[in-house]
């Protein structure tokens, strides 16, 4: 069976057995989306690339510890923990870029600009900056939960698995994050 048709779990099993091309397929399959997520977490391309490499190094080294079939959640958990550790070490708390476009299935595309008046563009840019600053103030785990849920369209259950916490903890993180954002951005509270 061609590698492209194998499930992630089958690819990891093949990798464990020494099939190098299986791991390459995993990286091709999930790399772009994971790098996009890490860029949103760090807001720094170089830092995101470093964490990306560290994540796949850990995936390679810990492949034998994967239990179950949810490779993607397991991989995102490794990436999130690596990113959070990196952010704590560097004391660089970055916001999630809201104007970076949309990502789905590993492919990112710029959001098409609608014709706006110059005043509207300035107002929108000011709003985006206020949101960035507010997201920048959120604790790392809250920012990670918001990023995974809103930008990577994960369910709260999937976010819980990635963050290594309970579903209730994710709901609490999201509630606190959205409450904080609504308080710091009262003019946008209806959109949050």
How would you describe what is shown here?
67% of the residues lie in helices and 3% in strands. With 192 residues, it is mainly α. The protein has a single domain, classed as Orthogonal Bundle (Arc Repressor Mutant, subunit A), CATH 1.10.10.10. Helix 3 (45-62) crosses helix 4 and helix 6 (140-151) packs across helix 8 (167-184). The longest helix has 23 residues, at 20-42. The radius of gyration is 18 Å and the shape is elongated. Residues 92-114 have low confidence and may be disordered.
Return the CATH topology: Arc Repressor Mutant, subunit A
N-end to C-end Cα span: 46 Å
* Class from secondary-structure proportions: mainly alpha
Overall number of structural domains: 1
Quickly name the level 1 CATH class: Mainly Alpha
Rg over C-alpha atoms, rounded to the nearest angstrom? 18 Å
Number of helices: 8
Strand content: under 5%
What is this structure, in a nutshell?
The protein contains 8 helices and 2 strands, in the order H-H-H-H-E-E-H-H-H-H. It is mainly alpha-helical and 192 residues long.
Using brief descriptors, characterize the structure shown.
192 residues; mainly alpha; two-stranded antiparallel ribbon; 2 strands; 3% strand
Please outline the helices and strands.
Blueprint: H1 8-16, H2 20-42, H3 45-62, H4 71-90, E1 102-104, E2 107-109, H5 118-137, H6 140-151, H7 156-163, H8 167-184
Antiparallel strand pairs: 1-2
Helix pairs in contact: 1-2, 2-3, 2-4, 3-4, 4-7, 6-7, 6-8, 7-8
């Amino acid at each position: 069976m061609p590698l492209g048709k194998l499930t992630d779990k089958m690819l990891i099993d093949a990798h464990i057995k020494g099939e190098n091309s299986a791991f390459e397929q995993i990286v091709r399959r999930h790399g772009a989306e994971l790098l996009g997520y890490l860029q949103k977490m760090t807001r720094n391309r170089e830092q995101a690339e470093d964490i990306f490499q560290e994540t796949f190094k850990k995936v390679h080294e810990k492949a034998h510890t994967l239990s179950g079939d949810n490779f993607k959640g397991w991989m995102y958990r490794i990436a999130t923990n690596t990113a959070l550790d990196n952010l704590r070490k560097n004391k660089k708390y970055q916001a999630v870029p809201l104007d970076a476009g949309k990502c789905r299935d590993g492919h990112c595309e710029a959001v098409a600009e609608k014709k706006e008046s110059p005043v509207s563009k300035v107002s929108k840019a000011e709003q985006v900056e206020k949101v960035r600053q507010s997201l920048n103030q959120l604790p790392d785990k809250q920012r990670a939960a918001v990023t995974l849920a809103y930008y990577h369209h994960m369910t709260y259950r999937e976010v819980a698995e990635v963050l290594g916490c309970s579903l209730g903890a994710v709901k609490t993180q999201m509630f606190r994050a959205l409450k904080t954002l609504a308080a710091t951005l009262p003019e946008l509270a209806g959109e949050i």
